[in-house]
Amino acid sequence: MTTPERDEPTDKPDQSKASKSEERASGTTPSTARRAIDMMLELSDGRQIPDDPLTSRQKQEAARRVGDAEFALALLEDDVTLFRADGQSYASVVVDGLPQVMNLRSAEFGAMARQRFFGEEKRFLRKSHFSAVLQALADKALGAPQKEMYLRTAPIDDGICIDLGDAAGRAISVTSAGYSVVDEPEVHFRRSSKPLPMPAGIGNVMLLRRHLNLTDGQFLLVVAWLTASLRPIGPYPVLMIYGQQGSSKSTVSKVLRRLVDGGTAPGRALPSKKSDLDVAALHSHLLAFDNVSVILNAISDWLARLATGEEDGKRRLFTDAEEVVLSARRPILINGIVNVISRADLADRAVFIELAPIPPAARITEAAFWHRFEQDAPAIMAGLLDVVAHGLSRLPTTVVEDLPRMADFAVWGTAIETAHWKPGDFMVAYRENISEASGDVLDLDEVGSAIIMLMGRRSEWSGTATQLLETLQGQSPPRRGRQFPINAKVLSGELTRLTPLLGRRGIVVTRAKAATKDRSRFILISASGADSAAE
């Protein structure tokens, strides 16, 4: 009687046979498993793997010889191409006939690897064996070529490439000449959110107007924000949508998110920790936050950094020295009942859209709204891409005088405006938006509103930060739930933050050193008597 290559289960299993079978399945010992993995990776003993792909019979025979971990590795090696990007290892792999890119550490890659093993062997791959496979691939990836990975949108020659996010892995190529859908994009994308609407028919971005509760000026700003968000190069303005109940702020947020990142929810809750914000930025091109009632100062600063570009180093989990650099620049969408942006740094990077209530006679059911929108979505998406192409054609020759803080957005908005609007329309709408927002932020800020009250009674004030704090505290108590800075140093920092906004209100803040022996620093505040809407 011949001994089978694998021990088959019997009604009365023999413990010694089971032990030997387990040894064969795991590669006998850790040392022989390591040698087998090295053999597969062509790293040991000079042995070569055949260039031709293994047949199913050869794979099964290999599994009997070397064990489950090595067999699972062989199943993957035929069509997995490894590369490195952003300090991590990725695999380009064909699944169901379609090319996909997966992070080696992702649950998606693990599920695919285990499914392949189960399909061949009709049994599950042990966790320890899968760990060995993953480590072997990670080791091999260290020598793989470096490539760029993109999230939703990427730069290409003379234009941009936008990931459609569909199962076929298609993308949209946009240049100054127009757009086209490509089956095999020339760049690698990490998948985020859901598929975008497939552009089709004659593009008409103006169809979007009937689905949004916006004024004409607001609509121009929103189209500029949408098309800027489809570009891989920021900085991106933060879009703040607010209005009382019944103003359709959540619906407007859903529509905009559908066109930028595919999702149909208005957004997630705003995180209270920077680490949670980093995770969101790692996996989503658009950061959308729904029903926000307050933004903590630290979160406001982090959002401002994400809008214009953030780079942060973090240790990889379970390591002490290996650092992963997170670099992100993301478009951001926030909605709430009131304007919750109260800090100048974030306000300078924002576009504010206040929605009017929808009359009861104009309301429709959510199902009816989305049915009508999805009918128009292909033409709207095509229209947006036409506007992007128009902007790309005009961008090299577009010049804007007296640029605001978000200079790149101002130039882009001016480049796209002649697709459907008159020259100059964008900057008129944008400067008006900046002016109104500056007033709102100053009114919400305790120091800002106190300085406006102070300068309403005089044309000039000078003194130290300590004297200014005493003056502000003496003229009126802080509003309920608010407080003045706790000391002069904090006040000085707040004043620096508010200086650009105060300047738009005609209040100029300068600092100098006194001509005295101690050269103490003093603050000079002067009022011109007129607000300045221009930057």
Describe this structure in words.
By secondary structure, the protein is an alpha/beta fold. Helices cover 41% and strands 17% of the residues. The strands form 6 sheets. Strands 5-6-7-8 form a 4-stranded antiparallel sheet.
Low-confidence stretches: 1-37, 39-50, 313-325, 530-535
Helix percent reads 40-55%
For the termini, the CA-CA separation is 93 Å
* Major sheet size, sense and barrel closure: 4 strands, antiparallel
Overall mean pLDDT: 82
Task: Detail the topology: elements first, then pairings.
Elements: H1 15-25, H2 30-40, H3 56-66, H4 68-77, E1 80-85, E2 88-95, E3 98-103, H5 107-121, H6 127-141, E4 149-151, E5 153-156, E6 159-163, E7 171-175, E8 178-182, E9 188-190, H7 216-229, E10 238-242, H8 249-260, H9 274-283, E11 287-289, H10 297-308, E12 310-315, E13 323-328, E14 332-336, H11 344-347, E15 350-354, H12 366-394, H13 407-416, H14 425-444, H15 446-455, E16 460-463, H16 465-475, H17 488-504, E17 507-513, E18 521-527
Parallel strand pairs: 4-9, 10-14, 10-15, 11-14
Antiparallel strand pairs: 1-2, 2-3, 5-6, 6-7, 7-8, 12-13, 16-18, 17-18
